[in-house]
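Sorry, any thoughts here?
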Amino acid sequence: MSLVIVFGAGINGAALARELILAGSDVVVVDSADLAFGTTAYSSRLVHGGLRYLEFADTPLVRESLDERERLLTLAPAYVKPLEFRVPVERRLGGFLDGLGKLLFGGKYKPRSRRGLWVVRFGLWWYDALARTSTLPKSRVLRREPGAALAERYGRLLSYYDAQMRFPEQFTAALLADARQAADEAGRLFAVHTYSGASVDGSSIIVTDDLSVTHTYRPAAIVNAAGPWGDDIRQALGYTGKRLIGGTKGSHIVVYRDDLRRALGDAALYAEAPDGRPVFVIPFGAAVLIGTTDLPYDDDPADAVASEQELDYLINLTNTLLPGCAIDRGDVTLHYSGVRPLPHVDAATTAAITRRHAIVEHAGGPWPAWTLVGGKLTTCRALAEETAAVVLKKLGRTPAANSRERPIPAIYEAPPLAGDDTRSVVGTTWPRGQVRHIIRTQWVRRLEDLVERRLMLLFEPRLERATLAELAELLVLEGRLYEHQAEAAIARTVARLADHFGRKVS
């Protein structure tokens, strides 16, 4: 018996499911919501080495992250693109004592001054040195251009490269699609159950979806990859113990302003807020993505919404950084907020909590079980490989293969099939035939799955009710909705977009 049940269909759960299939296991993925419904959809959408982790001398994490950044640039070019970052600095000196304090006292140290040119330059030299196999350009110093929108106090900028994953939601679907293909080729069991709950019956797990369809499985092992819901799932499965997850809330805003977008060009700004938090102002297609906040959060992660105070904080930071194209609340097209599944620890600032992952084993249940704590977009594949090795070792097996050199398929760039309807869905560039194929093959159950996490219409500058109506029609044609349910599905989606994202539908 080699079945492993993975709870959580976010990026870490999806990467693990794929890794376990490649390693030679059967896999079932269970999630109470949609793919990439949680933290995956609410990050800064960056694939990076973690420059600021060097302040805490976390060299192994940075080295691993840089190696994985390079691997994703090679294996997933449809989803991960190089991105230049520019760090504005006000003065040559500053930050040396803070750097020493963080090295000596870690998360208990509170910074007292801003980083100067030489501190940042040393950090980037170290960063470049750790990026052993990188094909990206090395860091360099730039002068502020006369007339730039950037505040005049910033005389110089330091340039370096990381990468961007604009839509980790689509990347997650691609990981699961590749897992399914690998399972089909190897003749292994692979299933994904979204909008489903699970209960324990002896040594069996009973999975029941929102239509009351049930499946019974007898797993050899369980991995809890539910992110910020990790403690809830652990307890529901009957495993006791201390709290593992101490989530922090991070909010972002998306702004469509041509002057702000032109001011960035092809480079993101990475600056330091007055409270020491990093702030990113990032090119995001035709828009600008600005983040992030970092606040303790103990409520249901599904209810996390950016507060007015957070929106004001991000707007004010942007205006302090780029007074030449100041923005206000009316410029915010949408906002989003998610909870990072960080370890539950005592730190002076939330920014100081480690971004290292942990694989925590639980004892006393009917199966070997683990909870994944932490993790980030960049290291999802490495965490998956490490976890698969731990699980298979416990089961007395060794992995048959791994994902280190396996490309991630560009499932959103497939050419139309013969007979497909090539007419575009109103208000979009998506052909109707391709949308129907996505509904059939990418575990789409609800209208909001399409809008938020497959077609990424959430981030378009304009979203029309007519678009939602046509998508609901396609869901009816594919048997995901009954015709009489369409209007209610549209109303539910419009309400969620307004309440959760501040997004208007015209």
